[in-house]
TrEMBL record:
Protein name: Sugar:proton symporter
GO cellular component annotations of the record: plasma membrane
Pfam family name, one: MFS_2
PANTHER family registered for this protein in UniProt: MAJOR FACILITATOR SUPERFAMILY (MFS) PROFILE DOMAIN-CONTAINING PROTEIN, MAJOR FACILITATOR SUPERFAMILY DOMAIN-CONTAINING PROTEIN
Keyword Transmembrane helix: yes
Superkingdom in the source lineage: Bacteria
Gene3D superfamilies named in the record: MFS general substrate transporter like domains (1.20.1250.20)
Membrane-spanning segments: 86-103, 115-141, 153-172, 192-213, 255-279, 291-309, 321-339, 345-365, 393-413, 433-453
GO-annotated biological processes: carbohydrate transport
Lineage per the UniProt record: Bacteria, Pseudomonadati, Bacteroidota, Flavobacteriia, Flavobacteriales
GO molecular function annotation: symporter activity
UniProt family annotation: Belongs to the sodium:galactoside symporter (TC 2.A.2) family.
Annotated organism of origin: Flagellimonas eckloniae
Keywords associated with the record: Membrane, Transmembrane, Transmembrane helix
UniProt-listed InterPro entries: MFS_2, MFS_trans_sf
Amino acid sequence: MSIVKTAKKDRVPFGQKAAFGAGHLVLNLYPGALGFFMFFLLTAFGMDPFLAGLLGGLPRFFDAITDPIMGFISDNTSSKWGRRRPYIMVGGILSAITFVLLWQLDENNSSDYNFWYFLIMSMVFLIGNTMFATPLVGLGYEMTSDYNERTRLMAFSQTVGLLAWVIVPWFWVIIADPDIFSNQAEGVRTMAIYVGVACLLLGLLPAIFCRGIDASHMGNRKKLTFRTIFSNLKDLFISIKEAVKNKPFMKLCGATFLVFNGYQIVASFSFFIFVFYIFNGSYEATSTWPAWFSSIGALVSAFLVIPIVSKMAEKWGKKNAFIISTALSIVGYAMKWWAFTPDNIWISFVPIPLMSFGLGSLFTLMMSMTADVCDLDELVNGMPRKEGTFGALYWWVVKLGQGLALVLGGLVLKLIGFDGNAATQTVETLTKLRIADIIIPVVTAALAIWIMWKYGLSEDRAKDIKAQLEERRGVL
């Protein structure tokens, strides 16, 4: 397939790409920091493991409700600042403030007090984060109508966003270092302030500099006010129903769920393999090797995999780029059986480039294809465009995968006989752990390829849809 040059009017200026990328850095920093900080609920604040698990799971149910509502609201908002940007601004400020407050726990308080404080503050934080994240994702879908420029925009934003995963593995090292903080609780409280301030400054950039579709050019839009918003809930369910009936979109959701969930289930397994298989149960000898493993993986995804995938998508189409990338990740996962060896620690880094094609390509391509799906939805169902609703539903699937992965990952560890309190693990347990670490992501990735094999929204089809839309309602 030949590469067609993008028209100047369809290109996203670098300044807007940078601002959108800054927003995605925030989208990754928050969950990354939350994931690493949650460990210290047990060690620094003495919380019961069951209660800590509830704090990880309960807010996700609340989040699943608010995302589609926020997407619908931003789809149907009209203001002189656009449909999305006012919410990004307010949500960015609210989420930064509440994230800092969320972690100002006192280790001298009772476990019950800290549990209820954290649970309530988590709900408030998630409201702010949803106000920021859902409109930001929708904004990205509408910043350009060009098939290939969408991929370039998402590739750039994902590259910037992945920098968060270079940084966050080192939070554990910094907080636990007695030469930096007097205790872990102080470290968590202080690092939360740094994260909150950084996310506040970065989160304001897309609200200020990015541009989306002017809602005044769109007809058939719901008139939303505080008085009428609840009466429009019926329209919200209609929007969700129309999105679910969109077959290409459901394929994207299914493939994302499989690839991301397969990775997340075994995400902690590499750490355990480092500790118990490569270093025979010695946390001291393990040292910072797992942090380096995670950081290098993120760097490879950001600066090697994503640029390659972007070019593949332009040359061979997004679907083919996804299938090739996912197949390469399967090879990388399989290589871990030979690469993870006590004989030479450096060999464990060899599969990283191939493994990185899985997640490195996933959100770059899937978010770009979701933008194409929004065009198809407008062609079939008319106005208003539903970038916010599609974005909310897509990320709901991602969050569902995260929550399910936490449960399934623990279940797998239990089934193979893993004992986190033991100094060493049996040979049988370690063998099963290494097999599960490979088989689970390989199977889910293969199923994702099968789902996407007959995905039909090609570049030619997307351009034909765009032409029909512009003929019908003009250029947005």
